[in-house]
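User: C-alpha coordinates for both sequences below?

Assistant:
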Amino acid sequence: MGAFILDRTMFKQMVGNATAAKTEIPVDYEHQTFWAGMFGGKAPASGWINKLELRDGVGGEAQLWANIAWTNTAADHIRSREYRYLSPVIQYNSHDRKTGSLAGAVIPSVALTNVPFLEELPEVRLNSLPAFLDGMLLSEDETMTQEQLAKLCKILGLSESATPDEIAAMATKGSDGAALAASLLEALSLSADTPKDKALTAITVLKNPANDPVEVAALRTRVIELESDRVKREAKDLVALALTEGKLTAPGTAQHTWALGFASTNAAGFREWMVATPKVVPLDHKQPKPDEPGSFQLDDDTVKACRDLGLSDEAIKKHTPAVAETYRRMS
Protein backbone atom coordinates (compact mmCIF):
# COMPACT_ATOMS: atom_id res chain seq x y z
CA MET A 1 0.00 0.00 0.00
CA GLY A 2 1.30 3.44 -0.92
CA ALA A 3 1.04 6.72 0.92
CA PHE A 4 -2.41 8.01 1.83
CA ILE A 5 -3.92 11.00 3.60
CA LEU A 6 -6.63 11.18 6.25
CA ASP A 7 -7.78 14.77 6.66
CA ARG A 8 -10.88 16.83 7.36
CA THR A 9 -12.05 16.58 3.75
CA MET A 10 -11.87 12.80 3.83
CA PHE A 11 -13.65 12.66 7.17
CA LYS A 12 -16.46 14.88 5.87
CA GLN A 13 -16.94 12.57 2.91
CA MET A 14 -17.06 9.53 5.23
CA VAL A 15 -19.60 11.19 7.50
CA GLY A 16 -21.75 12.28 4.56
CA ASN A 17 -21.74 8.84 2.94
CA ALA A 18 -22.52 7.13 6.26
CA THR A 19 -25.38 9.56 6.95
CA ALA A 20 -26.86 9.03 3.47
CA ALA A 21 -26.62 5.23 3.67
CA LYS A 22 -29.73 3.26 4.55
CA THR A 23 -27.77 0.60 6.45
CA GLU A 24 -25.40 0.80 9.39
CA ILE A 25 -21.68 0.12 9.02
CA PRO A 26 -20.78 -3.40 10.19
CA VAL A 27 -18.00 -4.02 12.66
CA ASP A 28 -16.65 -7.56 12.31
CA TYR A 29 -13.73 -9.67 13.53
CA GLU A 30 -10.38 -9.56 11.70
CA HIS A 31 -11.84 -8.04 8.49
CA GLN A 32 -14.02 -11.09 7.79
CA THR A 33 -16.49 -8.90 5.86
CA PHE A 34 -13.70 -7.89 3.45
CA TRP A 35 -12.44 -11.44 2.97
CA ALA A 36 -15.95 -12.88 2.64
CA GLY A 37 -16.60 -10.43 -0.19
CA MET A 38 -13.56 -11.79 -2.04
CA PHE A 39 -13.58 -15.49 -1.19
CA GLY A 40 -16.96 -16.13 0.44
CA GLY A 41 -17.66 -17.37 3.94
CA LYS A 42 -19.32 -16.01 7.06
CA ALA A 43 -18.69 -12.59 8.57
CA PRO A 44 -20.53 -12.27 11.90
CA ALA A 45 -20.86 -8.74 13.23
CA SER A 46 -19.24 -7.70 16.48
CA GLY A 47 -21.17 -4.43 16.41
CA TRP A 48 -22.79 -1.77 14.23
CA ILE A 49 -21.79 1.83 13.64
CA ASN A 50 -24.98 3.88 13.64
CA LYS A 51 -23.29 7.29 13.57
CA LEU A 52 -20.07 8.91 12.37
CA GLU A 53 -19.17 12.35 13.66
CA LEU A 54 -16.47 14.88 12.79
CA ARG A 55 -14.95 16.59 15.85
CA ASP A 56 -12.07 18.93 16.60
CA GLY A 57 -9.20 17.78 18.79
CA VAL A 58 -7.34 19.87 21.37
CA GLY A 59 -5.01 21.29 18.74
CA GLY A 60 -7.82 21.88 16.27
CA GLU A 61 -7.03 18.79 14.21
CA ALA A 62 -9.95 16.86 12.70
CA GLN A 63 -11.06 13.67 14.45
CA LEU A 64 -13.52 11.02 13.25
CA TRP A 65 -15.68 9.52 16.01
CA ALA A 66 -18.00 6.52 15.72
CA ASN A 67 -20.95 5.49 17.86
CA ILE A 68 -20.89 1.67 17.99
CA ALA A 69 -23.58 -0.64 19.35
CA TRP A 70 -21.62 -3.76 20.35
CA THR A 71 -23.02 -7.27 20.43
CA ASN A 72 -22.93 -9.01 23.81
CA THR A 73 -20.20 -11.37 22.59
CA ALA A 74 -17.99 -8.52 21.37
CA ALA A 75 -18.56 -6.57 24.58
CA ASP A 76 -17.32 -9.58 26.56
CA HIS A 77 -14.23 -9.79 24.33
CA ILE A 78 -13.46 -6.10 24.85
CA ARG A 79 -14.17 -6.21 28.57
CA SER A 80 -11.76 -9.14 29.02
CA ARG A 81 -9.22 -7.44 26.67
CA GLU A 82 -9.30 -10.33 24.22
CA TYR A 83 -9.77 -7.70 21.50
CA ARG A 84 -8.22 -4.25 21.96
CA TYR A 85 -8.15 -2.29 18.70
CA LEU A 86 -10.17 -1.16 15.71
CA SER A 87 -9.10 -1.26 12.08
CA PRO A 88 -11.26 0.53 9.47
CA VAL A 89 -11.51 -0.41 5.80
CA ILE A 90 -11.33 2.79 3.71
CA GLN A 91 -12.33 3.25 0.07
CA TYR A 92 -11.06 6.57 -1.21
CA ASN A 93 -12.73 6.84 -4.60
CA SER A 94 -16.04 5.12 -4.08
CA HIS A 95 -18.96 5.56 -6.47
CA ASP A 96 -22.68 5.87 -5.79
CA ARG A 97 -24.31 2.48 -6.40
CA LYS A 98 -27.35 3.99 -8.12
CA THR A 99 -25.98 6.95 -10.11
CA GLY A 100 -22.39 5.80 -10.53
CA SER A 101 -21.16 9.28 -9.64
CA LEU A 102 -18.01 9.75 -7.55
CA ALA A 103 -18.88 9.68 -3.83
CA GLY A 104 -15.42 10.12 -2.34
CA ALA A 105 -14.10 8.41 0.79
CA VAL A 106 -16.30 5.83 2.54
CA ILE A 107 -15.88 3.28 5.34
CA PRO A 108 -17.63 0.03 4.25
CA SER A 109 -16.64 -1.91 7.39
CA VAL A 110 -14.48 -1.85 10.52
CA ALA A 111 -12.80 -4.76 12.27
CA LEU A 112 -12.02 -5.71 15.84
CA THR A 113 -8.42 -6.86 15.78
CA ASN A 114 -5.27 -7.03 17.84
CA VAL A 115 -3.02 -6.09 14.90
CA PRO A 116 -4.35 -2.77 13.53
CA PHE A 117 -2.84 -1.14 10.46
CA LEU A 118 -3.36 2.32 11.95
CA GLU A 119 -1.38 2.05 15.16
CA GLU A 120 -2.28 5.66 16.06
CA LEU A 121 -5.82 4.63 17.00
CA PRO A 122 -6.39 4.33 20.79
CA GLU A 123 -7.43 1.12 22.50
CA VAL A 124 -11.12 0.24 22.38
CA ARG A 125 -12.93 0.68 25.68
CA LEU A 126 -16.56 0.06 26.57
CA ASN A 127 -18.50 3.19 27.41
CA SER A 128 -20.68 2.65 30.49
CA LEU A 129 -22.13 6.16 30.49
CA PRO A 130 -25.80 6.60 29.52
CA ALA A 131 -26.82 7.55 25.99
CA PHE A 132 -27.83 11.11 26.97
CA LEU A 133 -24.12 11.94 27.46
CA ASP A 134 -23.36 11.20 23.81
CA GLY A 135 -21.42 14.10 22.34
CA MET A 136 -19.80 15.00 25.68
CA LEU A 137 -17.26 12.17 25.81
CA LEU A 138 -13.68 13.36 26.03
CA SER A 139 -10.37 11.78 25.19
CA GLU A 140 -7.74 11.45 27.87
CA ASP A 141 -6.02 14.68 26.83
CA GLU A 142 -9.18 16.80 26.64
CA THR A 143 -10.91 18.84 29.32
CA MET A 144 -14.59 19.73 29.53
CA THR A 145 -15.47 23.33 28.78
CA GLN A 146 -17.56 25.37 31.21
CA GLU A 147 -20.44 25.28 28.73
CA GLN A 148 -20.30 21.49 28.50
CA LEU A 149 -20.09 21.23 32.28
CA ALA A 150 -23.16 23.45 32.73
CA LYS A 151 -25.10 21.39 30.17
CA LEU A 152 -24.12 18.16 31.88
CA CYS A 153 -25.23 19.47 35.29
CA LYS A 154 -28.56 20.54 33.82
CA ILE A 155 -29.15 17.14 32.26
CA LEU A 156 -28.31 15.42 35.54
CA GLY A 157 -30.54 17.76 37.53
CA LEU A 158 -27.64 19.29 39.43
CA SER A 159 -26.65 22.89 40.06
CA GLU A 160 -23.78 24.37 38.07
CA SER A 161 -21.75 24.47 41.30
CA ALA A 162 -21.91 20.67 41.71
CA THR A 163 -18.63 19.00 42.66
CA PRO A 164 -16.97 16.38 40.41
CA ASP A 165 -17.90 13.66 42.92
CA GLU A 166 -21.59 14.70 42.80
CA ILE A 167 -21.52 14.69 39.00
CA ALA A 168 -19.87 11.26 38.90
CA ALA A 169 -22.36 9.82 41.41
CA MET A 170 -25.36 11.15 39.48
CA ALA A 171 -23.91 9.99 36.13
CA THR A 172 -23.46 6.49 37.54
CA LYS A 173 -27.03 6.53 38.81
CA GLY A 174 -28.20 7.67 35.39
CA SER A 175 -26.20 4.88 33.78
CA ASP A 176 -27.85 2.29 36.02
CA GLY A 177 -31.26 3.75 35.15
CA ALA A 178 -30.48 3.67 31.44
CA ALA A 179 -29.40 0.04 31.70
CA LEU A 180 -32.62 -0.79 33.56
CA ALA A 181 -34.71 1.04 30.96
CA ALA A 182 -32.93 -0.84 28.15
CA SER A 183 -33.65 -4.16 29.89
CA LEU A 184 -37.32 -3.27 30.34
CA LEU A 185 -37.69 -2.28 26.68
CA GLU A 186 -36.08 -5.54 25.62
CA ALA A 187 -38.41 -7.54 27.89
CA LEU A 188 -41.40 -5.74 26.36
CA SER A 189 -40.10 -6.42 22.81
CA LEU A 190 -39.79 -2.67 22.20
CA SER A 191 -36.96 -0.83 20.45
CA ALA A 192 -34.68 1.70 22.14
CA ASP A 193 -36.35 4.58 20.28
CA THR A 194 -39.85 3.68 21.50
CA PRO A 195 -41.78 6.83 22.56
CA LYS A 196 -42.27 7.23 26.30
CA ASP A 197 -46.07 7.08 26.15
CA LYS A 198 -46.02 3.82 24.19
CA ALA A 199 -43.58 2.25 26.66
CA LEU A 200 -45.75 3.33 29.60
CA THR A 201 -48.82 1.86 27.91
CA ALA A 202 -47.02 -1.45 27.41
CA ILE A 203 -46.01 -1.54 31.08
CA THR A 204 -49.56 -0.68 32.20
CA VAL A 205 -50.96 -3.49 30.05
CA LEU A 206 -48.37 -5.87 31.47
CA LYS A 207 -49.52 -5.01 35.01
CA ASN A 208 -53.20 -5.38 34.10
CA PRO A 209 -54.01 -7.01 30.72
CA ALA A 210 -57.59 -5.73 31.04
CA ASN A 211 -56.26 -2.26 30.17
CA ASP A 212 -55.30 -3.39 26.66
CA PRO A 213 -57.98 -2.00 24.27
CA VAL A 214 -57.51 -4.93 21.89
CA GLU A 215 -57.83 -7.49 24.67
CA VAL A 216 -60.86 -5.70 26.11
CA ALA A 217 -62.61 -5.71 22.72
CA ALA A 218 -61.85 -9.40 22.22
CA LEU A 219 -63.07 -10.22 25.73
CA ARG A 220 -66.27 -8.24 25.20
CA THR A 221 -66.96 -10.10 21.95
CA ARG A 222 -66.39 -13.45 23.65
CA VAL A 223 -68.74 -12.55 26.52
CA ILE A 224 -71.47 -11.61 24.02
CA GLU A 225 -71.00 -14.93 22.19
CA LEU A 226 -71.20 -16.93 25.42
CA GLU A 227 -74.32 -15.06 26.53
CA SER A 228 -75.97 -15.69 23.16
CA ASP A 229 -75.18 -19.41 23.41
CA ARG A 230 -76.61 -19.53 26.94
CA VAL A 231 -79.87 -17.86 25.86
CA LYS A 232 -80.26 -20.28 22.95
CA ARG A 233 -79.65 -23.31 25.16
CA GLU A 234 -82.15 -22.07 27.77
CA ALA A 235 -84.78 -21.43 25.05
CA LYS A 236 -84.34 -24.94 23.63
CA ASP A 237 -84.64 -26.47 27.10
CA LEU A 238 -87.85 -24.52 27.84
CA VAL A 239 -89.42 -25.50 24.51
CA ALA A 240 -88.43 -29.14 25.05
CA LEU A 241 -90.11 -29.01 28.48
CA ALA A 242 -93.24 -27.50 26.93
CA LEU A 243 -93.35 -30.34 24.41
CA THR A 244 -92.94 -32.90 27.18
CA GLU A 245 -95.83 -31.35 29.11
CA GLY A 246 -98.03 -31.35 26.03
CA LYS A 247 -98.20 -27.55 25.77
CA LEU A 248 -96.85 -27.46 22.20
CA THR A 249 -97.32 -29.32 18.96
CA ALA A 250 -94.51 -31.30 17.36
CA PRO A 251 -91.26 -29.66 16.14
CA GLY A 252 -91.34 -28.12 12.69
CA THR A 253 -94.75 -26.54 13.13
CA ALA A 254 -95.44 -22.82 13.17
CA GLN A 255 -96.27 -22.97 16.87
CA HIS A 256 -92.94 -24.63 17.65
CA THR A 257 -91.03 -21.95 15.72
CA TRP A 258 -92.96 -19.23 17.54
CA ALA A 259 -92.17 -20.85 20.89
CA LEU A 260 -88.41 -20.87 20.19
CA GLY A 261 -88.46 -17.17 19.31
CA PHE A 262 -90.55 -16.30 22.35
CA ALA A 263 -88.34 -18.28 24.75
CA SER A 264 -85.16 -16.72 23.26
CA THR A 265 -86.31 -13.14 23.77
CA ASN A 266 -88.35 -13.51 26.98
CA ALA A 267 -87.62 -16.65 29.00
CA ALA A 268 -89.62 -15.45 32.00
CA GLY A 269 -92.65 -14.65 29.85
CA PHE A 270 -92.46 -18.07 28.20
CA ARG A 271 -92.48 -19.75 31.59
CA GLU A 272 -95.64 -17.81 32.51
CA TRP A 273 -97.20 -18.90 29.21
CA MET A 274 -96.39 -22.55 29.99
CA VAL A 275 -98.11 -22.31 33.37
CA ALA A 276 -101.26 -20.70 31.94
CA THR A 277 -101.56 -22.87 28.80
CA PRO A 278 -103.56 -26.14 28.95
CA LYS A 279 -102.31 -29.35 27.39
CA VAL A 280 -102.82 -29.58 23.66
CA VAL A 281 -102.94 -33.43 23.69
CA PRO A 282 -103.35 -35.56 26.87
CA LEU A 283 -100.07 -37.41 27.15
CA ASP A 284 -101.51 -40.24 29.30
CA HIS A 285 -104.09 -41.37 26.71
CA LYS A 286 -103.70 -42.49 23.14
CA GLN A 287 -106.68 -42.47 20.85
CA PRO A 288 -106.77 -45.70 18.83
CA LYS A 289 -106.83 -45.37 15.12
CA PRO A 290 -110.13 -46.75 13.77
CA ASP A 291 -109.81 -49.65 11.41
CA GLU A 292 -111.28 -49.58 7.97
CA PRO A 293 -114.24 -51.92 7.41
CA GLY A 294 -113.11 -55.46 6.69
CA SER A 295 -109.51 -54.62 7.36
CA PHE A 296 -109.32 -56.25 10.78
CA GLN A 297 -107.91 -59.79 10.76
CA LEU A 298 -107.98 -62.20 13.72
CA ASP A 299 -104.76 -63.92 14.53
CA ASP A 300 -104.44 -67.68 14.76
CA ASP A 301 -104.75 -67.82 18.54
CA THR A 302 -108.02 -65.87 18.44
CA VAL A 303 -109.45 -68.14 15.69
CA LYS A 304 -108.51 -71.25 17.73
CA ALA A 305 -110.17 -69.77 20.83
CA CYS A 306 -113.37 -69.15 18.84
CA ARG A 307 -113.41 -72.70 17.57
CA ASP A 308 -112.94 -74.01 21.13
CA LEU A 309 -116.10 -72.10 21.98
CA GLY A 310 -117.95 -74.11 19.34
CA LEU A 311 -118.08 -71.42 16.66
CA SER A 312 -117.81 -72.49 13.08
CA ASP A 313 -115.65 -70.71 10.53
CA GLU A 314 -118.76 -69.08 9.03
CA ALA A 315 -119.84 -67.83 12.45
CA ILE A 316 -116.37 -66.51 13.12
CA LYS A 317 -116.37 -64.57 9.85
CA LYS A 318 -119.89 -63.33 10.46
CA HIS A 319 -119.16 -62.13 13.94
CA THR A 320 -115.59 -60.85 13.25
CA PRO A 321 -116.43 -57.17 14.04
CA ALA A 322 -117.90 -58.09 17.43
CA VAL A 323 -115.06 -60.45 18.20
CA ALA A 324 -112.58 -57.82 17.12
CA GLU A 325 -114.09 -55.24 19.47
CA THR A 326 -114.05 -57.76 22.34
CA TYR A 327 -110.44 -58.61 21.57
CA ARG A 328 -109.49 -54.95 21.45
CA ARG A 329 -111.03 -54.31 24.88
CA MET A 330 -109.34 -57.35 26.36
CA SER A 331 -105.96 -56.26 25.02
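Moving on to the next sequence.
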Amino acid sequence: MSDGLVELTTEQRVRLLQIARKTIFHWVSRNTYPSLEEEDQRLNSMEGAFVSLHIGDRLRGCIGRFDGSAPLYKTVMEMAVGAAFEDPRCPPLRTDEVPRTDIELSILSPLEVVDASAVDVGKHGLLISQGRARGTLLPQVATQFEWTREEFLSQTCQKGGMDAAAWQQDDCVIQVFEADVFSESQMRPVR
Protein backbone atom coordinates (compact mmCIF):
# COMPACT_ATOMS: atom_id res chain seq x y z
CA MET A 1 0.00 0.00 0.00
CA SER A 2 1.39 3.36 -0.93
CA ASP A 3 0.18 5.44 2.00
CA GLY A 4 0.06 2.62 4.56
CA LEU A 5 -2.00 2.69 7.69
CA VAL A 6 -0.90 4.52 10.80
CA GLU A 7 -2.62 2.91 13.77
CA LEU A 8 -4.23 4.98 16.48
CA THR A 9 -2.92 5.10 20.02
CA THR A 10 -4.83 3.29 22.77
CA GLU A 11 -6.09 6.66 24.05
CA GLN A 12 -7.35 7.64 20.58
CA ARG A 13 -9.09 4.29 20.16
CA VAL A 14 -10.78 4.60 23.55
CA ARG A 15 -11.87 8.17 22.74
CA LEU A 16 -13.40 7.17 19.39
CA LEU A 17 -15.29 4.28 21.01
CA GLN A 18 -16.59 6.67 23.68
CA ILE A 19 -17.68 9.12 20.97
CA ALA A 20 -19.51 6.36 19.07
CA ARG A 21 -21.32 5.13 22.20
CA LYS A 22 -22.24 8.65 23.34
CA THR A 23 -23.56 9.42 19.86
CA ILE A 24 -25.78 6.31 19.78
CA PHE A 25 -27.15 7.03 23.28
CA HIS A 26 -27.76 10.67 22.36
CA TRP A 27 -29.46 9.76 19.09
CA VAL A 28 -31.75 7.13 20.65
CA SER A 29 -32.86 9.56 23.39
CA ARG A 30 -32.91 12.92 21.53
CA ASN A 31 -32.70 12.09 17.80
CA THR A 32 -29.75 14.49 17.42
CA TYR A 33 -25.98 14.33 17.50
CA PRO A 34 -24.24 15.33 20.73
CA SER A 35 -22.26 18.56 20.66
CA LEU A 36 -18.61 17.46 20.65
CA GLU A 37 -15.29 19.10 19.83
CA GLU A 38 -11.97 17.28 19.49
CA GLU A 39 -8.54 18.82 19.91
CA ASP A 40 -6.53 15.69 19.02
CA GLN A 41 -5.01 16.32 15.59
CA ARG A 42 -5.35 12.70 14.46
CA LEU A 43 -9.03 12.56 15.42
CA ASN A 44 -9.51 15.68 13.30
CA SER A 45 -7.73 14.17 10.28
CA MET A 46 -9.80 13.39 7.21
CA GLU A 47 -10.08 9.59 7.21
CA GLY A 48 -12.68 7.01 6.31
CA ALA A 49 -14.20 4.66 8.87
CA PHE A 50 -16.74 1.87 9.35
CA VAL A 51 -18.79 1.29 12.48
CA SER A 52 -20.00 -2.26 13.13
CA LEU A 53 -22.46 -3.12 15.90
CA HIS A 54 -22.86 -6.59 17.40
CA ILE A 55 -25.08 -8.11 20.05
CA GLY A 56 -23.44 -11.40 20.90
CA ASP A 57 -22.47 -12.98 17.58
CA ARG A 58 -25.23 -11.17 15.69
CA LEU A 59 -24.51 -8.19 13.44
CA ARG A 60 -26.86 -5.29 14.31
CA GLY A 61 -25.56 -2.82 11.75
CA CYS A 62 -22.50 -1.84 9.78
CA ILE A 63 -22.10 1.41 7.85
CA GLY A 64 -18.99 3.18 6.65
CA ARG A 65 -17.44 5.76 4.42
CA PHE A 66 -14.18 5.41 2.49
CA ASP A 67 -13.52 9.05 1.78
CA GLY A 68 -12.07 11.41 4.32
CA SER A 69 -14.68 14.10 3.72
CA ALA A 70 -15.01 15.00 7.42
CA PRO A 71 -12.82 14.86 10.51
CA LEU A 72 -12.43 11.27 11.72
CA TYR A 73 -14.36 11.79 14.96
CA LYS A 74 -17.30 13.27 13.02
CA THR A 75 -17.21 10.41 10.51
CA VAL A 76 -17.38 7.98 13.46
CA MET A 77 -20.38 9.89 14.85
CA GLU A 78 -22.23 9.78 11.51
CA MET A 79 -21.41 6.13 10.85
CA ALA A 80 -22.46 5.15 14.41
CA VAL A 81 -25.91 6.60 13.76
CA GLY A 82 -25.99 4.96 10.33
CA ALA A 83 -25.04 1.54 11.70
CA ALA A 84 -27.51 1.77 14.59
CA PHE A 85 -30.52 3.14 12.75
CA GLU A 86 -30.05 3.14 8.95
CA ASP A 87 -28.51 -0.18 7.86
CA PRO A 88 -31.17 -1.66 5.54
CA ARG A 89 -30.08 -5.21 6.48
CA CYS A 90 -31.02 -4.75 10.14
CA PRO A 91 -33.94 -3.24 12.06
CA PRO A 92 -33.10 0.01 13.90
CA LEU A 93 -31.40 -0.53 17.24
CA ARG A 94 -33.92 -0.47 20.09
CA THR A 95 -33.27 1.52 23.26
CA ASP A 96 -33.04 -1.67 25.34
CA GLU A 97 -30.40 -3.08 22.95
CA VAL A 98 -27.99 -0.13 23.19
CA PRO A 99 -26.32 -1.16 26.50
CA ARG A 100 -25.77 -4.72 25.18
CA THR A 101 -24.28 -3.59 21.87
CA ASP A 102 -20.56 -4.01 21.24
CA ILE A 103 -19.15 -1.24 19.04
CA GLU A 104 -16.35 -2.08 16.61
CA LEU A 105 -14.52 0.61 14.64
CA SER A 106 -12.47 0.13 11.47
CA ILE A 107 -10.35 3.17 10.61
CA LEU A 108 -9.42 2.96 6.94
CA SER A 109 -6.37 3.63 4.84
CA PRO A 110 -6.88 5.19 1.38
CA LEU A 111 -8.16 2.88 -1.38
CA GLU A 112 -5.66 1.46 -3.88
CA VAL A 113 -6.45 -0.24 -7.22
CA VAL A 114 -4.73 -3.64 -7.48
CA ASP A 115 -4.76 -6.89 -9.42
CA ALA A 116 -6.50 -9.81 -7.74
CA SER A 117 -3.13 -11.47 -7.10
CA ALA A 118 -2.12 -8.58 -4.80
CA VAL A 119 -5.02 -9.10 -2.37
CA ASP A 120 -3.61 -10.14 1.01
CA VAL A 121 -6.27 -11.93 3.07
CA GLY A 122 -6.18 -10.78 6.68
CA LYS A 123 -4.51 -7.50 5.76
CA HIS A 124 -6.74 -6.04 3.05
CA GLY A 125 -10.39 -5.15 2.88
CA LEU A 126 -12.01 -5.06 -0.54
CA LEU A 127 -14.11 -2.69 -2.61
CA ILE A 128 -15.00 -4.30 -5.93
CA SER A 129 -16.87 -2.36 -8.61
CA GLN A 130 -18.41 -3.40 -11.92
CA GLY A 131 -20.50 -0.75 -13.59
CA ARG A 132 -22.85 0.59 -10.90
CA ALA A 133 -22.51 -2.49 -8.68
CA ARG A 134 -20.20 -2.22 -5.67
CA GLY A 135 -19.36 -4.76 -3.01
CA THR A 136 -17.37 -4.12 0.16
CA LEU A 137 -16.04 -6.40 2.86
CA LEU A 138 -13.80 -5.40 5.74
CA PRO A 139 -10.51 -7.29 6.28
CA GLN A 140 -11.74 -8.98 9.46
CA VAL A 141 -14.61 -10.69 7.58
CA ALA A 142 -12.26 -12.84 5.48
CA THR A 143 -10.28 -13.79 8.58
CA GLN A 144 -13.44 -14.62 10.54
CA PHE A 145 -14.67 -17.00 7.84
CA GLU A 146 -11.18 -18.31 7.00
CA TRP A 147 -11.64 -17.54 3.30
CA THR A 148 -9.02 -18.00 0.64
CA ARG A 149 -8.19 -15.04 -1.61
CA GLU A 150 -10.55 -16.36 -4.30
CA GLU A 151 -13.38 -16.88 -1.80
CA PHE A 152 -12.89 -13.35 -0.43
CA LEU A 153 -13.01 -11.87 -3.95
CA SER A 154 -16.09 -13.93 -4.86
CA GLN A 155 -17.94 -13.12 -1.63
CA THR A 156 -17.27 -9.40 -2.09
CA CYS A 157 -18.65 -9.55 -5.64
CA GLN A 158 -21.77 -11.41 -4.48
CA LYS A 159 -22.33 -8.89 -1.68
CA GLY A 160 -22.38 -6.16 -4.33
CA GLY A 161 -24.95 -8.03 -6.46
CA MET A 162 -22.41 -9.18 -9.05
CA ASP A 163 -21.66 -12.66 -10.31
CA ALA A 164 -19.23 -14.47 -7.99
CA ALA A 165 -16.64 -14.59 -10.77
CA ALA A 166 -16.97 -10.90 -11.73
CA TRP A 167 -13.58 -10.15 -10.17
CA GLN A 168 -11.97 -12.09 -13.03
CA GLN A 169 -13.48 -9.84 -15.70
CA ASP A 170 -11.70 -6.89 -17.35
CA ASP A 171 -14.46 -4.39 -16.51
CA CYS A 172 -14.20 -5.12 -12.78
CA VAL A 173 -12.14 -2.78 -10.56
CA ILE A 174 -10.57 -4.26 -7.42
CA GLN A 175 -9.53 -1.82 -4.71
CA VAL A 176 -7.93 -2.72 -1.40
CA PHE A 177 -7.60 -0.89 1.89
CA GLU A 178 -6.18 -1.61 5.31
CA ALA A 179 -8.03 -1.06 8.57
CA ASP A 180 -7.11 -0.38 12.17
CA VAL A 181 -9.84 -2.51 13.80
CA PHE A 182 -10.77 -2.36 17.49
CA SER A 183 -13.86 -2.82 19.62
CA GLU A 184 -15.22 -2.12 23.07
CA SER A 185 -15.09 -5.79 23.99
CA GLN A 186 -11.33 -5.80 23.25
CA MET A 187 -10.68 -2.57 25.15
CA ARG A 188 -12.86 -2.86 28.27
CA PRO A 189 -13.36 -0.78 30.27
CA VAL A 190 -14.06 2.19 27.99
CA ARG A 191 -17.24 3.61 29.48
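User: Anything stand out in the second?

Assistant: The mean pLDDT is 93.
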